[in-house]
Every structure is written in structure tokens, then in C-alpha cells.
Design a protein that fits this description.
Layout lengths: L16 H9 L3 E2 H4 L5 H6 L4 E3 L26 H12 L3 E5 L11 H14 L4 E5 L7 H8 L5 E3 L9 H4 L5 H14 L4 E7 L5 H13 L4 E6 L16 H14 L3 E4 L13 H6 L1
Parallel strand pairs: 2-3, 3-4, 4-5, 5-6, 6-7, 7-8
Antiparallel strand pairs: 1-2
Helix pairs in contact: 4-5, 5-6, 6-8, 9-10
Length: 283
């Protein structure tokens, strides 16, 4: 399929040099690079990055994702401190921390998330931290660990409609992900966030039902973006979704009570996440 006119974002990797050097200096990964995010120029040029902790290899086999699928290395116990130093160097007021899924770890990496937040808050209590976490295979104790870490937003992506989980997300379960978002609220009154992509072949009615499901578990914030296959070996694109449809999804989500909805082709999970800072204070 030919790309439509609304997908014409220009990448200028020369603008990314400074933040790439900072990441390399601190031996850190970013999901911006590992996921081949189309917004990397815009975010890196502003000195903003989403940190990918616990290595760059994932134990799941999602067909839409470009993150490496080789067996992950052991945890680097000094990484949390290095993340906090990078946050300080960048003078970030809002930071997003995520990880690949680490089913090889007993707690799925929950303690490593906890330690990373602790180091960041030790450097500056005013920094707002959003954790974008995997499903921890439904482990309630792991979820409690990350929710009680001191993070300011707990994020977990549904990624797609339930009808496509078996094809796109082997090892994941739609209901398990919804339950994670619901239980996070029960553990502590914390703002929750989720995201998904369109263009996999889902119907509009299926998207509306997904939005209703997220509303029922009282999810606060939402991102919706266009799926763009990282390579020919990934799940094939089925449709370019027009801006008018993204607007319809946004309007419907807001009518259900979401506090903030970013819905457009180039939106990704942590895109302009710092816009939430004011809304978090108010929730």
C-alpha cells in the first residue's frame, strides 16, 4: 500500500546525536531506538527519551514489535542508578521507564522497576515517573511492587483488540492485561494509562468495545496510533487509518470519561507523555 499524505514525518538523525551520546555514555537503552519509533527526531531533539531498562531482548514473540527476541542477559544491578543520573543530566521533569517482557525473571523485573524509581526520586522528589510495564504473567505481588514504587503513573498497553491477540500477541492475554489495570487502582489510587495501535485489520466496532473495556477498569489516559510494520518479516499492515477515524476514537474515548487521549497516526505510548504532568496533579 502506498503511504498516504498524512504519514510524511521526516527523520533527521543528526538531531539525535547529543542524547544518543548521553545514553551510550551511561550504557543505557531507549525504547525510542529499539522500537524504531518514528518520533525519535522530535523527542531526542527536545532532550526527551523513554528509557528501556533490563536489556533490549524480550522473551515474548509479538509479531508487530521490532525489539530483539534473543535470550536476555542477566540484570545489571547498577542500571537504576545510571538511569537516575541520565534523568538528572537531561533535567527531565517527567520521565517514562519501560522494559521488554522478562518472563525469565521470577518477578518479571518488578524489583528492578522499584529500584529505578527509588534512585530517580532520591535524586529529585519532584520528577514525575511513569512506568510502562509488562503483564508480569498476572503476578499480583509483582504488580503491587511496581504500583508501590513511588511512580506517578502506571501504564500498561493492550496493544490491539482481543480478537487479534492469538495472532499478534502469543503469551499475552487480553483479560489479564485489563485485570492488571483494574488491580493497580485497587492497590493504590494511582493514575493508569494504556495504549493500542490500529491498522491490524480490526473493525471500528471492535475498537469501540476495547475503549469501553478500558473505561470499565477506570483507565485515565490513552494513546492510539497507526501500526507501521518495522520490516517485511513482521505482521503485515492491513489498513492505513485516516485522521478522521482517529478523531472519532478520541471523541468516543473522551465521552467515556478518559482524562486525556492522544489519537493520531504518529502517536506512540510515551509520545508527549509530559503533557500529563498537570493532569496528574489534578487527579
Amino acid at each position: 500500500m502506498r503511504k498516504p499524505y498524512w504519514l510524511n514525518k521526516h527523520l533527521d538523525l543528526s538531531l539525535c546525536r547529543d542524547i544518543k551520546q548521553l545514553l551510550r555514555k551511561n550504557a543505557l537503552n531507549s525504547v525510542c531506538e529499539e522500537s524504531l519509533c518514528p518520533n525519535i527526531t522530535e523527542c531526542f531533539a527536545k532532550g526527551v527519551a523513554t528509557f528501556l531498562i533490563m536489556g533490549s531482548s524480550c522473551t515474548r514473540r509479538c509479531r508487530f514489535c521490532s525489539v530483539d527476541k534473543s535470550f536476555p542477559l542477566p540484570l545489571d544491578l547498577n542500571e537504576p542508578e545510571r538511569v537516575s543520573l541520565a534523568v538528572s543530566d537531561l533535567n527531565l521533569k517527567y520521565v517514562v521507564i519501560t522494559s521488554p517482557t522478562r518472563d525469565d525473571l521470577a518477578d518479571g523485573g518488578a524489583a528492578h522497576f522499584f529500584n529505578t524509581v527509588s534512585w530517580i526520586k532520591r535524586q529529585s522528589k519532584s520528577v514525575l515517573v511513569e512506568l510502562l510495564v509488562p503483564d508480569f504473567k498476572g503476578d499480583a505481588k509483582a504488580l503491587e511492587t511496581v504500583v508501590c514504587s513511588g511512580c506517578d503513573v502506571l501504564s500498561h498497553n493492550l496493544e490491539t483488540v482481543p480478537q487479534l491477540y492469538s495472532v499478534l500477541r502469543p503469551g499475552a492475554e487480553y483479560q489479564r492485561s485489563l485485570t492488571l489495570l483494574k488491580k493497580a487502582k485497587q492497590i493504590e489510587k494511582i493514575p493508569t494509562k494504556s495504549g493500542f495501535m490500529v491498522g491490524f485489520g480490526e473493525s471500528q466496532d471492535q475498537v469501540y468495545r476495547l475503549l469501553e473495556d478500558l473505561s470499565r477498569v477506570k483507565c485515565d489516559f490513552l494513546t492510539i496510533g497507526q501500526y507501521l510494520p518495522p520490516s517485511r518479516g513482521h505482521y503485515p499492515l492491513k489498513e492505513y487509518v485516516g485522521p478522521d477515524i482517529f478523531n472519532k476514537y478520541r471523541e468516543y474515548a473522551l465521552s467515556l470519561g478518559f482524562l486525556d487521549v492522544k489519537s493520531s497516526p504518529y502517536v506512540r505510548s510515551s509520545y508527549r507523555a509530559d503533557d500529563l504532568a498537570e493532569k496528574i496533579v489534578k487527579t
